[in-house]
Each structure stands twice: as structure tokens, then as C-alpha cells.
DNA sequence: CTGAAAGCGCTAACAG
DNA sequence: CTGTTAGCGCTTTCAG
């Protein structure tokens, strides 16, 4: 395709004049303007974005680290980011990592190699010590709390929310309470869930904890593992409504009534939970994503807490 | 940050040698290799991606046109694309358009301005006449059938699937059948739905057609509009399981039994439908996305049909 | 095996 | 108001 030199030559002007009309910079005489525009239209010319970004040292593109692309929680945050990016005319790159350390670093390298102006971390697996140095190459915002001054965050008080949910279950008379979490104990939210559980129920019975839960099928598996135990739990806290739905389905399949035989509370107010009438701890992940985006483009390192909500529904 | 010249100077070699070790091209003497690598490590150097892409005339990045970012069907296709892109080490840009004509064109311009190697269209609003010319700038693959030889497609036979679903309802004795669709009549799938409806039921009663349905809330609205009619429909085909879930919820709210009082069949086998036991016409959108991605990187203009499945569940 | 030099396509400081 | 020119940072002929 034609380039800016070609346009300049054909219009009988210099490239800087063409550049000026392209970006309507300063003043260009009306006749040259028109001449340039005519050639641009004739040749159906579009400036090369890579060249522009290269020289401007800015891409107006931000990346979103998403360990998995089939996890509804990450999707919710991504949607929040997209909501804002479209308003602000920014582009977003989706960066799947599978929680792989080196794949994750490759993503951060896109900050260093100038391909991205900023990165939003929905979840990570490298330690902050490794990641923080990348902040000198571009804005980094996390969707979890961290006190590193170089990192902005849009976070929720997960610990408080878990405490409140467990307290709720205890108040309703439950003492045998099971729960599900995502990754094993290396995950921050898993740690906080266990900590809150101990805080409310005193001890931590490993048999009541099912890890690696993300989607409905994982909930079915959790149901199978939990609901045939000698001392069957009377309530379960699921780390997502899809997981909760799987548990619900399994429970109904073996003739258990919800909430009479099993109380269920899920997380993130996902559609399936609304459909099934499942109570849910809603961390407002869409808002988290929106806030994260706002921080990125303001190059702000503020720490913004997004309040959580609890939706009480029939399942409890 | 340091650039390739800096590395060359410090390593006492030319930039071409640095480039060679960077891309391990041809042979470089071991001593120079080591010298260059040492400087690279010392300076923590990373090549600028924009400069590389600019000169290589390739970005290994593809865009996915997604009219809305809160629509589960588009999400399913995006997930398919991401599944493959991560395997093939491609990057994906999400391009929200809101079905706005000029915003959509802006996205196609990213092909022309060399920012993208290809574009996958999950849904579009410009006519093919406008869009096809962009195929000369990069690969375009659609997730719907088109016979334009320049456009590859990963499509499903929507018409056949609608026919089968409506036939199923008729066979089960339903004659008052309502249905929901997405956008108004300008959308291809809406047209096909109406056509199939007429084919099976003879005429097309506008009162039984609710448009602009995407999510659960739209289903609630559809339920409200449909289920208080004098001649209440006995069955409804919903263009998505989230919409179906909304209708289900509304129906249960006014004491209707499913399927006794109202049979419901949804679409795309989404989690909420699985949770509620809703029958579903599954166009396998994740596979569609995967196939679309494969076509893009093979630069293939083939037309690949993805078969649909019908999941029979209690709601029918 | 290695380096010089010519770009890729664009912006912006500077001089006029 | 306009043109010249020096880059942005990299790859790749083409000689040697």
C-alpha cells in the first residue's frame, strides 16, 4: 500500500505537510489541505499504525492477564475492562497464561518491548518481586490488594466477605460447612478462605475442602466428593455460582433438598446462580475491571476498594 | 531502554550481528554470540516489538469483532479463538463494535494499517460489499456462511437447526409457539428464525416474536410480554439459554409449570441452561471459534460447517 | 562469518 | 505556513 512519501510526492508537498493534515496539526493552507486529502482519498491511504506507535512511543493498547479463558470470574473482569476501553478508545489484548510462570512473564515483556501501555492482572502466579520491576515500563494494575507503591489496584476485601458468608451460615445453625476453592493453597483467595473458615468455625477439616473448582463440572465433582461422606456437610460455600450450580445439581440428583438438606451459597452473582435462586457473595467483578481500567489510563497507583454485596436467595 | 545499536556498540559488533543472535540466523562465531548475549543480559535488553513487526510486515495478532461484550454467545466464540491462539502463540485483540457501522469499519482498518494479520467476525453490521474489499489487506473469516470466495467461514446451519427445533415442538403437540431473537429483522439469524417458523407453523404471528433478547433480564421481559397474553403460548424457543432462563424464571414466578404449562427450548448449551435442565440447540460456538482461528492462520478461504446438536432436557 | 547501508512508515524539531 | 532532516528500532540484502 501507498505510504506517506507517495502521498507527499503526488500531492506535490512534503511529508510533514501530509503528516500535518493527517493529524490536523498547526495550520495548513486550505489548498494544500485539499490537495493532500484528494490524493489520500484517491489512493485510499491509511497511515501504518505500527509506524505511528513506534515513533509516538505509545500504543493505546492495554493487556489483560487472564489465566484461563473459560473461567467466568475472569470473564466478568474482562467485561468491565472492555466496557471502559471502548468508551476511551483504547484497545485490549487478551493474555492467557494458564498460570504458567514463564508465559506470564512473556506477557509482561510486552510492556518492556513497548507493545502495551499497561497491564491489568486479574490473577497471577509470579511473585510480586518478579513482577514489580516491570512497572518501570508501563502501568500495572492488579485486581487484588497489594501494598507495593508502584502497583495500582482495584480490589475487594475478600477476607471480610468470606467471614461474613461463613458467619451467616453459622448463624443459621450450620456447623458442618464445606467449601470449594480454585487452585491449591498457593492462591491468595484460597488462603483467605481457609483463614476465614478457621476464624469462624475454629478448625479446618480438610475433607470439607475441595480445590481446583472453576466451573459447573467441578461443582458436580465436589458434590460427589462431599455429599456421600458419613458426616455430610449441611452447608457449602462455593467459590463461584457455576460451581455452586454443579453442587446443587448433584444434590438434587441424589434427592437432597436445598436448602433443607443442604444450604448453598455461591459467589460472583453469575447468571446460573440467579436462575437457580442461589445465594451469592458478589465481589462485583465487572466494576473491579472497570475501575482497574480507569486506574491504568490515569497512570494511577491508587488502591481502590470495591465493596462486595451478598445476595440472599432461596438456597440458604 | 537500550536499543540494538547500543548493544552492538557495547559488544563491539555490528547491529546485524546482534540481530542474528537475536533471531539465531545463519552462523555467528561463538565468541561474538557470547559477547552479544552478555551485553543483552547485562542491559536486560528486549527488542522493540513494534519495530520488529513494522519491518517484518506481520504482527501475529488477530482481531475478533464482538458487537457486545456482555453477550454469552460472542463470549463462547471468543473462547474458541483464544483456545487456539494460545497454542499457536498468536495474540488476540478484542474489538467491540456495538454494531455501529463506522466503529466496525475502524476495526477493519486495523487490517489495512497493518496492525492486525487477520479478523474474525462473530457478527457484523456492515454489508459484505463494504467488508469484502478489506480481504486484500489480511485474512477475514466469518462465523456465518457467506459465498464470497475471499472470505473463509466457520459456520453452522442455523436454518436447519431452527427447523428441527420447531418441528420438535410441533411433534410434541404445540401449535402456539413463541420465539425470541436478537436484533430486529436486519439480523441474519432473525431472518432465518422467522423463515423456519413460517415453514413449520405456516404463518408468523408478530405477537409471539420478542426481539432484542440477549441475556437473562431480556428473558424476564419476554416472559412478561408473552405469558399474560389471552392466548398464551404453550412453548417458546429462546435464542440463548440465558434468555430461556429468564423466561423460565418468569414462568415459575407466575405459577406456571415447565414443561406442563410451558415448554422451553434454549440455545447454545450455556451453563444456566444446564443448571436449570433446559433443552438447548447447541451450535457449538466454541468449536466455531476454534475453527475460525484455524482458517485464519492457514489463510484459508474454505467454508467449514460445524454441526449443531440438540440437547433434550426436562424443559420440553 | 561479518558489517555497511538501505529501508519499514511515520513524527517533530528546526530553519526558513 | 512549509520543507528538510534526523530519528523511532529493527531486519536484510549485498559485498567482502
- Report the sheet with the most strands of chain A, covering strand number, pairing sense and barrel closure: 6 strands, parallel
Output the CATH class name of the largest domain in chain A.
Answer: Alpha Beta
Kindly report the CATH topology of the largest domain in chain A.
Answer: Rossmann fold
Radius of gyration of chain A, whole Å: 26 Å
CATH architecture of the largest domain in chain A: 3-Layer(aba) Sandwich
What percent of residues of chain A adopt helix (DSSP H or I)? Answer: 40-55%
Number of domains of chain A: 3
> What pair of chains forms the biggest interface?
A-B, 47 and 47 residues
Mean pLDDT of chain A: 94
What is the ordering of alpha helices and beta strands of chain A? HHHHEHEHEHEEHEHEHEHEHEHEE
Strand order of the largest sheet of chain A: 2-1-3-4-5-11
Task: Work out the helix count of chain A.
Answer: 13
Structural class of chain A comes to: alpha/beta
Query: Low-confidence segments of chain A, ≥5 residues, pLDDT <50?
Result: none
Pfam family, one (chains A, B): LacI
Keywords (chains A, B): DNA-binding, Transcription, Transcription regulation
InterPro entries (chains A, B): HTH_LacI, Lambda_DNA-bd_dom_sf, Peripla_BP/Lac1_sug-bd_dom, Peripla_BP_I
Protein name (chains A, B): LacI family transcriptional regulator
Amino acid at each position: 500500500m501507498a505510504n506517506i512519501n507517495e502521498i507527499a510526492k503526488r500531492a506535490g508537498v512534503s511529508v510533514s505537510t501530509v503528516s500535518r493534515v493527517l493529524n490536523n496539526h498547526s495550520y495548513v493552507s486550505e489548498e494544500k489541505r485539499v490537495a493532500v486529502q484528494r490524493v489520500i482519498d484517491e489512493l485510499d491511504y491509511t497511515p501504518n499504525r505500527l509506524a505511528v506507535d513506534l515513533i509516538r512511543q505509545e500504543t493505546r493498547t492495554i493487556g489483560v492477564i487472564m489465566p484461563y479463558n473459560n473461567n467466568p470470574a475472569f470473564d466478568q473482569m474482562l467485561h468491565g475492562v472492555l466496557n471502559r476501553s471502548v468508551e476511551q478508545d483504547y484497545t485490549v489484548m487478551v493474555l492467557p497464561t494458564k498460570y504458567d510462570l514463564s508465559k506470564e512473564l512473556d506477557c509482561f515483556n510486552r510492556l518492556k518491548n513497548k507493545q502495551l501501555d499497561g497491564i491489568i492482572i486479574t490473577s497471577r502466579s509470579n511473585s510480586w518481586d518478579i513482577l514489580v520491576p516491570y512497572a518501570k515500563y508501563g502501568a500495572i494494575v492488579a485486581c487484588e490488594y497489594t501494598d507495593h507503591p508502584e502497583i495500582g489496584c482495584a480490589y475487594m476485601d475478600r477476607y471480610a466477605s468470606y467471614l461474613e458468608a461463613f458467619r451467616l451460615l453459622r448463624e443459621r445453625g450450620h456447623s458442618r460447612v464445606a467449601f470449594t476453592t480454585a487452585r491449591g493453597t498457593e492462591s491468595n483467595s484460597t488462603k483467605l478462605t481457609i483463614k476465614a473458615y478457621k476464624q469462624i468455625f475454629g478448625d479446618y477439616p480438610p475433607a470439607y475442602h475441595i480445590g481446583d473448582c472453576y466451573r459447573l463440572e467441578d461443582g458436580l465433582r465436589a458434590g460427589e466428593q462431599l455429599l456421600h461422606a458419613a458426616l455430610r456437610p449441611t452447608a457449602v460455600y462455593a467459590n463461584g455460582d457455576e460451581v455452586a450450580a454443579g453442587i446443587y445439581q448433584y444434590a438434587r440428583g441424589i434427592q437432597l433438598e436445598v436448602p433443607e438438606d443442604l444450604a448453598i451459597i455461591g459467589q460472583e452473582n453469575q447468571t446460573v446462580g440467579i436462575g437457580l435462586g442461589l445465594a451469592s457473595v458478589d465481589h462485583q467483578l465487572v466494576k473491579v475491571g472497570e475501575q482497574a481500567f480507569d486506574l491504568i489510563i490515569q497512570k494511577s497507583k491508587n488502591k481502590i476498594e470495591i465493596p462486595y454485596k451478598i445476595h440472599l436467595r432461596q438456597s440458604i
